[in-house]
Amino acid sequence: MLPSYEATFSVPLKCESCVSDIKSALSKVDGITLTSFSIPNSLISITSTAAPSAIISTIQSTGRDAILRGSGAPNSAAVCILEIPPSQTSTSHPPKSQTSKYESPVRGLARLIQLSPKLTLMDLTVTALPKGRYSISVRRTGDISHGAKSLGNVYSGEDGGREGELGVLEVDETGRGNLVGEVGWRVWELVGRGMCVRPVEGTEDGRAEVVGVVARSAGVWENEKVVCGCSGKTVWEEREEMIGKRMV
After folding, report:
1. What element of type H or E holds 119?
2. Phi-psi label, residue 175: left if phi above 0, alpha if psi -120 to 50, beta otherwise
3. What is the C-alpha to C-alpha distance for residues 153 and 138, in angstroms, rounded to an integer?
4. Which of 76, 64, 2 has the alpha carbon at shortest distance from 37?
5. Could you give the count of Cα atoms lying within 13 Å of 9 in the half-sphere of its Cβ?
């Protein structure tokens, strides 16, 4: 059985009816052991083994949005924004004036939450990719400028004994795919490394490839701000930007 972790989510909570609706929906998600609701703070704390994406989609099924605010113990969580390599964006994207569909090179997001000293939960979602099968790997460097070429070889740890191939992702006809699994890495070993999602043999569009750099993210209760100190935007305004950039 997987070790559980605690995560906090911002959710619009106006009354006890909101709490009841969400509790009912979450009761159907395997792995959730404890939930706590704060209506004044519009915050839900959840202890579980479920992937954050599964929890968010379940809350959204009640007609309410949800934002992951923090997960896991301090220094045990990370995120990787997956995007088309900068060297390819000029040829992969038409000018913005032609269409708004390709304004952002971002194609997905990977969340990493360390559950134990040797086990990390990976929750990876991509959008707007051609249908097919994609391999996911951690790479030696964090240079995404030319995709897999600049990221270097698959990283197997300094001793060469780790598994750098993290799994295979299935993307459906809508261009969306999600892969949840456990990887034998500690989060700090991955921070600063690159991640590469690229087609395997048989994928319809062999040119598709997205990459990103793993960066530390907030642990549970480490991010209680509702307004960004840099941009002045609320978490919900930033959420709308993330949706527009295909980060969620």
Report:
1. strand 119-126
2. left
3. 9
4. 64
5. 28
Structure confidence at residue 191 as a pLDDT band (50, 70, 90) = very high
CA 179 to chain centre: 10
**Rg of the chain in Å (alpha carbons):** 18
Residue type, 70: G
Q: Mean pLDDT lowest for which of 51-55, 61-65, 85-89? A: 85-89
Task: Return the exposure string of 151-172: e unless at least 16 CB atoms fall within 10 Å of the residue's CB, then b.
Answer: beebbeeeeeeeebebbebebe
Q: What is the DSSP letter of 16?
A: H
- Band of pLDDT at residue 99, cut at 50, 70 and 90: very low
Report the amino acid identity of residue 228. Answer: C
What distance in Å separates the CA atoms of residue 107 and residue 209, rounded to the nearest whole number?
10
